Amino acid sequence: MPTDFLPVLSDTHSRDGLIIAGPCSAESLDRMLLTARQLCAQGIKIFRAGTWKPRTRPGGFEGHGAKALGWLSEVKKSTGMLTATEVGCAAHVEAALDAGVDILWIGARTTVSPFAVQDIADSLRGCDVPVLIKNPSCVDMNLWIGAVERFYNSGLRRLAAVHRGFKIPGETSYRNAPLWELVAEFRKELPGLPIICDPSHMGGARQMILPLSARARELGYDGLIIESHCDPDSALTDSFQQILPSDIKPVMDIWKGCAAC
Ligand code: PEP
Ligand code: MN
Prior knowledge:
The chain is α/β, with parallel strands linked by helices. It has helices at 11-14, 29-41, 66-79, 90-98, 108-111, 114-123, 141-153, 180-189, 199-203, 209-218, 249-255; strands at residues 18-22, 46-48, 82-86, 103-106, 131-134, 159-163, 195-197, 223-227. The protein has an 8-stranded parallel β-barrel, surrounded by 5 helices.
């Protein structure tokens, strides 16, 4: 099992935890800039936005794609924040890297497919870009471990896992159940791999973000990825779980002093 992972980012970007925030989807340049400026004012240094949106069923908003990568670079230019987006295939990787995106993430619906993960990993061979790997939507830790190994085998070392919870049958109070104990076992398999929590997709509700973030901090996680939008109620995707940039402050306070990862 690999253990020689490198820090995702330099110390200056993650002194108080690797905290990433931004809208679920890149909806328009104006909305992105407004949200980014507000998050930047709160001290957030890494801005997320989904440019290609993987929808479980067709027909919803599927993102503005490559056009929205230009908006991410405007955010970077205007705020100095680093940027992150989801990639689901080799063509996305090429476009995102060309547009200067700093961090890539692999979504829960991609981690389930070894073919897709391998294609993306192959396309990244020789690159030093950080890649965040979300847990697969189903409860199969080996798919998650396997995805980490595929990127590792392509020479990538700036890797981190993102714990966003699992789709399980039956009623739960979560959108995606955390299954903290199973994830603790996953962490034992890959010591040295930073792990960050995604309380937005886990809880699926604004009021769950703070308690889930606190739990992740207690468990020694290395950071968070949080969905935040300048007008959450009107968001085109995941509106129930996005918070106003001003509401991120108490979450960040919990993470003050977290070791850089
Ligand atoms: C997202 O981060 O917006 C997203 C689609 O997440 P996940 O892959 O965890 O569902
Ligand atoms: Mn989302």
